[in-house]
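Risk register update: the risk of archive-format incompatibility is retired. Evidence:
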Amino acid sequence: MADFGINVEPGEVGLDAQRLRRIDTHFRRYVDDGRLAGWQVMVSRRGKVAHLSSYGLADKEAGRPVEPDTLWRIYSMTKPITSVAAMMLWEEGAFELSDPVSRWLPEFSQPRVYVGGPAARPVTVPATEPIRVWHLLTHTAGLTYGFHRVHVTDEIYRLRGFESGAPEGMDLAACVRAWAELPLAFQPGAEWNYSVATDVLGRLVEVVSGQTLEAFFAERILGPLGMRDTTFWCPEERQGRLAGLYLPDPARTRAIRSDALGKGILKPPTWLSGGGGLVSTTRDYTRFTWMLLKGGELDGARLLSPRTVSYMTRNHLPGGADLTAFGRPLFAETRYDGVGFGLGLGVVVDPVAYRTLTTVGEYHWGGMASTSFWVDPAEELAVVFMTQLLPSSTYPLRSQLRQLVYQSLVD
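Archived output:
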C-alpha cells in the first residue's frame, strides 16, 4: 500500500471519478462562503486511496493552506483508539467484559444513582449492579458529560469543574476518582448515554497494562501502525502544521477563530483523555481505518483478531435496539435513528431509518470539531474527513459526505 496519496484510478475499485468530484464541488461552498476555514477528505476502497482532496485554509489568519500533513484535533475520534487498546488487553485475558471495573478501579466499588433533588443536594440510591467493562465500552455505565445540559447529573459534573475538560492540575487517575464520587444518571446497563466512560476505560488500560495511556498507544498501536503524527499534544516544532480551531458566528454564516478553546493541545496535558485528547493527520487516521477494515492487521502489524473486530462492530444494545430506543436525545457524534452501538463505535442497523445511503454494519464515529470517519466492510470502503469547526452539530457535514461518497460507487 502507498504511504499516502492517490494510488489507484477510481474506476479500478468501482468508483466514478466524475461523481467523486461532486464531493469537492459541494464542500468548497462551505469554505467559499466562510462557514469553514478548510477541510480534507480521503476515500479509499479495498485498501487503496481513490480520492484525496483538500480545500481552504488550515489557518485563516496566517493564510496557511490545508496540506497533506496538516494536524487536526480529532477529539472523540480518540475513543475508537482507546477501545481498541482495551480490546487488545481483553484478547490477552487481562479481564472479561463482564468483570466489575472496581476490581482495578476500587473507587467504583459502591456507585450510587441519582433519583431526585437539585444538583447541590442530589438524592441517590445504591446501584443495583456494578459498573462492568462492557458498560464502559458501550456508554451504558450511567456516566455523563457536563456539557450535555440535559440531566441534573450533567450539572453536578459542571459544579465539580467537568464541563468540556477537567479542573486545572488533575491527572487521569484524579479525574476518575472524582467521577466515581458523582451520582450515575441511571442504573448501569439501563440506557445509553454519551459520556466520560471512554476516559475511564483509558484509565483501566493504564492500571491493567502498567503503562500510561500515552505510552501504551505509542508502543502498541500508533508505532506499529506507522501513525507517526498522532499524539496527545502538539510540540512547538509541529505547531506550524496545526489547523486553527473555529466556532460559528451567531448566525452560523462564518467561522471565527477560537484560540482559547484550542490552546490546550500546545503543551503536554495534565490528564490523558482517551475520550478526546489526540491530534492526528488524515494519513494517520486512514491507517487506523485500514487496520479495522483488514480485520485488525495492517502491513504485518496485527493489533486484533478478525473475530474481535467483528465482535466490536456489531450492535451491542439490548434487543438490537437503536440509539433512539435505548439512548437519551442529546448530543453525540452520530445520529440516533437506525444506529446502534458496538464496543466504542456507532454501528448502522437500519439505513432506511438512518435516512442515509449506507450499509447495514457500517461503523463510524466523529470528533467535536466536525471531524469524522466511517468504515463499511460490505463495500470495503473507508472514509476520513477532517476540518476544525466546533461543535460538530453546526452543519450536516457527515450525512452530506455519506450521500456524496455512496453515489460515487458504481460497481
